[in-house]
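Form 7-S
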Amino acid sequence: MKSQWSNFHQIGRNSFLAASTVYVSSEFNFVNTSLLNRRSFCFAEGDRSSFVVLKSEAEFNSALSKARDGSLPSVFYFTAAWCGPCRLISPVILELSNKYPDVTTYKVDIDEGGLSNAIGKLNVSAVPTLQFFKGGVKKAEIVGVDVVRLKSVMEQLYK
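Output:
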């Protein structure tokens, strides 16, 4: 005989999954452009974020130059389409790019053709990796998914 708590647990678990799915799909809009074999973010029309997807080594070098010369506070977000933890942290990165519109967030897909040299320049060995630049210097790095630390670093560096 099942106890009343086993039914409650099952309902609670199913409700959580449904709620989290609805929350993610309504708050954060991802587009899977499988025809182009890449994932990108979609933004609402009034979006204030400064989020740039780098697709070539020339774009990466330009962004890195701006970060290193101190003219632009920036975050480099190294990711991959196949990376589960990257998909978990992506909504948080979008949220923070809206909260800090003066900080440019650069998304770098490590599997994008022509970016392998770029990854070596910043010694990226795992994804997700986030590197934070301010005043021309790399101030912090986060490897893996640590939402609390991510929010804390953004607050400390860019508030």
